[in-house]
Amino acid sequence: MIKTILGSVREYKKPTFQTIFFSGIEAVFEIVIPFWMSFLIDRGIEAGNMRQVALYGGLLLLFAALQCSTGVAAAYRGAYASAGFSANLREDMFARVQTFSFANIDKFSTSSIVTRLTTDVTYVRNAYNMMIRMAVRSPMMMIFAVAAAFNIDREVSMIFLAVLPILAVALGLIIYFAFPLFSKIFTNYDNLNNVVQEDVRGIRVVKSFNQEAYEIHKFNAVSAVIRKIYTRAECIIALNGPVMQVSMYTCMMLISWFGAHAIIASGNDAALGLTTGALTALFTYAIQILMSMMMLSMVFVMILISSAPIRRISEILSEESTIQNPADPVMQVRDGSVRFEHVNFHYRDEGDKDVLADICLDFPSGSTIGILGATGSSKSSLVQLIPRLYDVTGGRVLVGGVDVRDYDLDVLRGEVAMVLQKNELFSGTIADNLRWGNENASDDELRHVCHLACADEFIDQMPDGYDTHIDQGGSNVSGGQKQRLCIARALLKQPKILILDDSTSAVDTRTDALIQQGLKEYIPATTKIIIAQRVSSLVHADQIVVLDDGRVNATGTHEELLANCDIYRDVYESQQKGALEE
Q1: In this structure, are residues 492 and 419 in contact, taking their beta carbons and an 8 Å threshold?
Q2: What are the distances in angstroms from CA 480 to CA 122, 165, 484?
Q3: pTM above 0.90?
Q4: Neighbours of 306 (CB within 10 A)
Q5: How far is residue 95's CA from residue 123's CA, in Å, rounded to a whole number?
Q6: Beta carbons within 10 angstroms of residue 399's beta carbon
Q7: What is the distance in angstroms between the CA of the first residue and the CA of the last residue of the chain?
Q8: Which end of the chain is less enclosed by CB atoms within 10 A, N or C?
Q9: Cα distance between residue 159 and residue 170, in whole Å
Q10: Digits of tens for pLDDT over the chain (582 positions)?
């Protein structure tokens, strides 16, 4: 996992190593200062030698300035390296998500991916910054401080060796009990993001049913779970501070006791034993050793907290799309013919029930195909196999006489345009959204496809016309307007296969008929596959497919199905009856 995410460091390796270098130099100066401080006390202040005071005082000021400058440099380069690393990490994750098939997206869920791209990366960035600074500086400072303390007085310095194992055991217990809690926290962050996404996306439904209080209660319930787990984890981690403080003050008292006895015994003579300056240095080294232990414990805690995000980010970066380009892909789609040969399909596990079973269909190039079926009859699943949004689990889907798995993905999807059941528009102008179909399209081409999709009638009424800004998700246009814009966008692509997945459900029958006529005239050679609930949208199709529970119940023209298919006839008669009653 570590190797996977460190691949995102890339151009920030140099500032990372610079941070490590400056942190090491900073630690060296921090160790040197107490050593020279003891000379200042013993040879200058105690001896009353002002020349020595000035000499050692000047050296201490120089060392302090160098320590400060290296510390600032380490902090600056560390912040630069960690911020760049996190930016690369987000970019790499987002790029990886773009390669995912629908099956991969279903595996992680949208809310989980959002959490990993935001909250998880923030934790990893903080851990990385701390690692390249504290994880280098603290061990060096502790090792050098222990060595310097033993050089001053071995017997008094043995106090450190007695305290360090106690701190190590305490830290190990804290990590042992806190680790499982942090793993739970990030799973619940996914749940929280899911609640927020659902509520914001469906805010109109929430308000129309007056369910604000229910949504607030649902959010508070998930938030309370996170608060409870986080509080328990932080309470365990908070024990680290008292343990460190008790250890530090215990060391200070023991050093004071034994050091004072050693000074009295030696008469403050360095040749006979401990001096006042040496005892002062020991106090400083004691604080440095314990502070380095505290910083190391903070590093371990940060690693502990970020271990779950590291694992979750690594899962995204290591995930391979279930849909891959073949080794020697076909680079041209001959025509828009589509054939399903004994196709079976299920979504996830092998043991799941097939949502499509033994589908055998043949759509000639340039034909208009209608697909009708009850909700849950897998109409959308069927057409999503054509551009390989999912792969079949049995049989073959052929486009232009070639198995879709043999095509280059970009080539195949470039010749298939889909207007999905859930239409999506993106932030930007109407023209920006339309040019998703063809980024080089002229203004005249935009107007022409909008006329065919009956979208020009409302665009022309807008003050800014095609420069009208579309809010995120197309929230500032109606459902019917959104559908017509999405159809226009698909037409601009001029594909060999056009799939309309119930994409005229929000427009009236007159507009629907005009759109169907426009499609027939504008792209006569394109295979048009239309999923609809209204029979009136399909009556002129060359072939109509009736699906029932993932199987083909019947195929034929409108007249043939009226005569031979009970399902089709029942739907038609019920809709005709409703129209007559209106």
Answers
A1: no
A2: 40, 71, 6
A3: no
A4: 23
A5: 20
A6: 28
A7: 63
A8: C
A9: 17
A10: 788 888 899 999 999 999 999 988 888 888 787 777 776 776 767 667 788 778 878 888 888 888 889 989 999 999 999 999 999 999 999 999 988 887 888 788 777 888 888 888 998 998 898 888 887 788 887 787 777 777 777 777 777 777 777 777 877 787 778 777 777 777 787 788 888 877 877 777 787 778 888 888 888 988 888 888 888 888 887 787 787 778 777 777 877 777 777 666 655 554 445 667 777 777 777 777 777 777 777 777 777 778 888 888 998 999 888 888 888 999 999 999 999 999 999 887 655 678 999 999 999 999 999 999 888 888 989 999 999 988 999 999 999 999 999 999 999 999 999 887 777 888 889 999 899 888 888 989 999 989 888 888 889 888 888 899 888 777 788 878 888 888 889 888 889 999 998 877 767 778 888 888 888 888 888 999 999 888 888 888 999 999 998 899 999 999 999 998 998 999 888 888 755 555
Token pair for residue 68? 């400060």
Tracing tokens 């470039």 back to the chain, one arrives at: 414
Length of the chain in terms of residues written: 582
- DSSP-derived pairing of the beta strands 368-373 and 356-363: unpaired
Angstrom distance (rounded) from CA 409 to CA 196: 34
Task: Tell me which DSSP letter residue 473 carries.
Answer: G
- Strands lying side by side in the sheet with 402-403: 356-363, 338-345, 394-399, 402-403
- Residues 560, 531: Cα–Cα separation, whole Å: 19
